Every structure is written in C-alpha cells, then in structure tokens.
C-alpha cells in the first residue's frame, strides 16, 4: 500500500523548489541576458518552461516509482540520497549562476548535477528500468544546460582576454 502523503512531494517538490529559486534570483536577470547566448539557445522561448517542467516532473515520477517498488525496504532511503543531492545541486544552479553572477560556478555546478543525475538514473534503472527511462528527459535537459553554460563561458572568456589585452596596451 502506497502512503499517499509521499505522492505529491516526490513528484512535485523538485519542480516547485526549482521554480521558487529561479524566481528568487530573477533580480539578476539583466546581467544574465547581457551575456552572449548561443544561437541555438531556447531558454527565453515559450518552449523552455513546459519542456523543462515535463522533464523534471518525469524525474519526480521516476523517484516515486522507485520509492513504491522498494516499499518496506530500507534500501529505498539509501537510493534517495543521490536523487536528493542532485536535486539540491539543481536548485543551487540559479543562485550560483545568476545570484553570484558566476559563469564558472554555474558551469561547475551543472556538470556536477549532470553527473549525479546520471548516477541517480542508473541506480533507478537497476531497481526498475522504467524509472531509469523516466530520468532520460531530465538528463537531456541537464546536458542542454551544460552545453549552453559551456558555450557562454567560452564566449565570455574569449571576450575577457580581448578586454584584458586592450586594457594593458592603451
């Protein structure tokens, strides 16, 4: 028998937490929009929020699937550790990137989050293959974020070097 009080938190908490953090760091949106973005960037389109929401809800459903598959087992609490850690890392992405105005911090954080989400997806797949498959859209989202942040960092670094040289040789 599934405890009903786990259904909503396991499925909705990841999305709710991320959207709250994102709204909190919107004060630095002008800084973020001032950075050169890749031509394939879709973060400012109508497609981004629904696609991201679906991906993160799928990861919440994967968590719930594993939680219910291991009902009555202490192993399920152990398997939730990488899921919770990667979710906290995801929530820390906006404060690092936009709150701290740090492309390096954001890039390192999203790389760590992607690695932890990959481990989580694999452990979920070992318990229930369907749960591992439900993590794939979320991993795709994280890979997109990682590639976008790496592109923005590279462009920023190229411009930083040009600015630094111009400052040394007036």
From TrEMBL:
Q: Name one GO biological process term.
A: tetrapyrrole metabolic process
Segments traversing the membrane: 46-67, 79-97, 103-127
Q: Which GO terms describe its cellular component?
A: membrane
Signal sequence range: none
Under Pfam families, the record lists:
TspO_MBR
Subcellular localization(s) per the UniProt record:
Membrane
Provide the membrane topology annotation: Multi-pass membrane protein
Ordered alphabetically, the record's keywords are: Membrane, Transmembrane, Transmembrane helix
Q: Which residues form a coiled coil?
A: none
Record-stated family: Belongs to the TspO/BZRP family.
- The molecule here is called Translocator protein
Q: Which organism is it from?
A: Lygus hesperus
């Amino acid at each position: 028998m599934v405890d009903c009080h786990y259904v909503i938190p396991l499925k909705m908490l990841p999305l709710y937490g991320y959207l709250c953090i994102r709204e909190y760091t919107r004060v630095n949106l002008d800084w973020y929009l001032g950075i050169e973005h890749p031509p394939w960037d879709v973060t400012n389109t109508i497609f981004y929020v629904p696609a991201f929401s679906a991906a993160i809800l799928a990861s919440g459903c994967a968590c719930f699937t594993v939680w219910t598959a291991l009902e009555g087992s202490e192993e399920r609490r152990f398997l939730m550790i990488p899921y919770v850690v990667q979710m906290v890392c995801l929530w820390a992405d906006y404060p690092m990137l936009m709150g701290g105005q740090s492309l390096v911090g954001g890039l390192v954080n999203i790389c760590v989050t992607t690695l932890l989400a990959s481990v989580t997806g694999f452990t979920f797949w070992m318990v229930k293959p369907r749960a591992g498959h439900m993590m794939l859209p979320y991993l795709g989202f994280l890979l997109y974020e990682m590639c976008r942040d790496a592109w923005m960092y590279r462009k920023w670094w190229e411009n930083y070097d040009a600015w630094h040289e111009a400052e040394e040789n007036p």
